[in-house]
Specification:
By secondary structure, this protein is an alpha/beta fold. It has a domain at 3-184 and 210-238 and 303-321: NAD(P)-binding Rossmann-like Domain (Rossmann fold). The chain contains eleven helices and 14 strands. The chain has helices at residues 11-22, 38-45, 63-70, 87-106, 149-168, 214-227, 244-254, 265-281, 292-299, 307-310, 320-331; strands spanning 3-6, 27-32, 52-57, 75-78, 113-117, 133-134, 172-177, 179-181, 193-196, 199-202, 211-213, 233-236, 260-262, 303-304. Strand 9 and strand 10 form a beta hairpin. Helix 1 runs parallel beside helix 2 (38-45), helix 1 packs across helix 6 and helix 8 packs antiparallel against helix 9. It is globular, with a radius of gyration of 20 Å. InterPro entries: Epimerase_deHydtase, NAD(P)-bd_dom_sf, NAD(P)-dependent_oxidoreduct. This is Nucleoside-diphosphate-sugar epimerase. Pfam families: Epimerase.
Length: 339
């Protein structure tokens, strides 16, 4: 089966290619923006004698470039992601790019199975009670415009995929990873905290982090792509999750000392209300970086389940303890990722 992987040269994309090869899927077409990323994928493929990797360079914003990449494929795994940039750029790379990809998919003569790598950010967790369980039954966000740009763009992206499936009838499987971490990734999720004014504001406290090690996440995507049911969603988090406080303490011990200031939830909510009020009074001149709605969505101390993912045969390749050890070992040599 020929499989197209978008974002194949990225942090998660490379791991997806590796896990697909490990599952015997050797005919892979890797979509790249930067041809230099092919070297890393070739090194991965060298471990699999039967691997047949094809590299295509395409900009997902350009419909003309995408159609040849999709042609002849039986499955498309959409892992390309816009993690930073202006709001317009992030919507272009998440929503417009996805529409172009979907147009190419539905114009193919043969049916194509589509796998979307979505995000935890699309779920309406701000409406849940503090400490509530987040799983596949959690409703989608009802007020995406009140979340950050990334969550809003991913929400619209996922909606677009469901709309196209309803109209054209192709098979669709959606995965919603939590915080993906590992060598080559960022040191801190905003669920842990933020660097502001020369200090690290520790916002997560005793909240459980929805971590998934990059290889475990890629394994989940491969398993769901090959065994997941059409029309289903699978949340991706690992076992034995740690709290934000535990993660930060381990980071300080094994990577580097960080001057951190703990911010309790009640203080964060109070500050969020003040920021929102001043933003409204200034008519948006002071951006509402924090709002009570965003705070409830990110730091309300939810619990997380991976039971549905396990029901189709997924198991984490390594434990959270091992994942943190490997990540921290890499982080010591990657200080530029600490921002």
């Amino acid at each position: 089966m020929k499989i197209l992987v978008t974002g194949a040269g990225g942090f998660l994309g490379k791991a997806i290619v590796d896990r697909l090869l490990a599952h015997g899927q050797t005919d892979l077409r890797c979509m790249l923006r930067d041809t230099s990323k092919a070297r890393g994928l070739e090194a991965i493929a060298a471990r699999y004698p039967q691997a047949k990797l094809e590299f295509v360079t395409a900009n997902l914003r350009n419909l003309v470039e995408i159609a040849p990449a999709v042609a002849g494929c039986e499955m498309v795994i959409h892992a390309a992601a816009a993690l930073k940039g202006s709001p317009a750029e992030m919507f272009m790379d998440s929503v417009v790019a996805s529409r172009n990809l979907l147009e190419s998919v539905v114009n193919e003569l043969r049916p194509i199975r589509v796998v979307l790598v979505s995000s935890f950010g699309v779920m309406g967790v701000a409406e849940l009670p503090r400490g509530a369980m987040v799983d596949e039954n959690t409703p989608l966000e009802q007020h995406p415009e009140r979340r950050d740009v990334y969550a809003h763009s991913k929400w619209r992206q996922e909606q677009l995929f469901w709309e196209y499936r309803a109209k054209y009838g192709f098979e669709l499987v959606v995965l919603r990873p939590g915080v993906i971490y590992g060598p080559g990734g960022g040191h801190f999720s905003t669920r842990v905290g933020l660097n502001l004014f020369g200090r690290f504001l520790h916002l997560g406290g005793n909240n459980v982090l929805p971590l998934t090690y990059v290889d475990n996440c890629a394994e989940a995507i491969a398993v769901a792509a090959l065994s997941g049911s059409d029309g289903e969603v699978y949340n991706v988090v690992d076992d034995d999750l740690v709290t934000s406080k535990q993660y930060l303490a381990a980071y300080k011990k094994h990577v580097r000392k960080v001057r951190s200031v703990p911010v309790p939830y009640f203080a964060l909510m109070w500050g969020s209300k003040m920021v929102e009020r001043y933003s409204e009074r200034s008519k948006g001149q002071l951006p509402a970086i924090f709002t009570p709605y965003k705070t409830r969505a990110m730091w309300a101390g939810n619990q997380f389940s991976n039971a549905k993912l396990k029901s189709i045969g997924w198991r984490p390749l390594i434990s959270t303890r091992e994942g943190m050890e490997q990540a921290f070992a890499a982080f010591r040599t990657q200080p530029e990722k600490a921002k």
